[in-house]
Specification:
Length: 119
């Protein structure tokens, strides 16, 4: 199975980009790609349960539903460890499918030529 990476740096500071990132991630999963969303900088907040519950961009499914579908369909949400620690977030309440990782994990995923899009 080929891989696909969606890199996301936005959360409530740009809910349009955050939503579209998970729309694309779900499309990649539906296309039978081993898909990973990498959350960095402000986007790490999306890994906290409850944070995305009130995000709903017109014309799209609510962000929480998109994230839940992604996790339920086998997608991986990787959360930048230094970004998460910088914001002093609680790792005990991660959303389903989320895992805190270092940058080396992202490099490993991308090292075989995986396509990547960024939002």
């Amino acid at each position: 199975m080929s891989k696909f990476c969606v890199s996301l740096t936005c959360a409530k500071d740009n809910t349009d980009k955050a939503t579209v990132a998970f729309v694309v991630a779900n499309a990649a999963l539906a296309s039978e790609k081993d898909t990973m969303v990498f959350l960095s900088t402000e986007a790490v907040r999306l890994a906290e349960q409850g944070y995305a519950d009130d995000v709903h961009e017109d014309g799209f499914a609510p962000l929480k539903e998109l994230m839940d579908l992604f996790a339920e369909s086998g997608g991986n949400i990787w959360v930048c460890s230094p970004c998460y620690k910088k914001r002093a977030l609680n790792a005990d309440g991660l959303v389903p499918g989320a895992k805190i990782v270092g940058g080396a994990k992202l490099v490993e995923f991308l090292s075989d030529g995986s396509p990547s899009v960024s939002y």
